Prior knowledge:
Layout: H1 3-13, E1 19-23, E2 29-33, E3 39-43, H2 48-61
Amino acid sequence: MNTNEGWTARTAILPLELGTILCRSCGKIIGTIPTEGVKKFYTICEEANCSLAKGVESNERG
């Protein structure tokens, strides 16, 4: 049995996690999600400095 054939069959079943979730403030990788191509998504992580920055931005806008 060719081991490459088994590996290809397994990866065909599993979705590829090409989407990366990044913190907008510090750039930390928060997680990955399955997408049909390489994509970046931004949010704010739960680090104290990043959460504080999010609060300041909200107050400045409103």
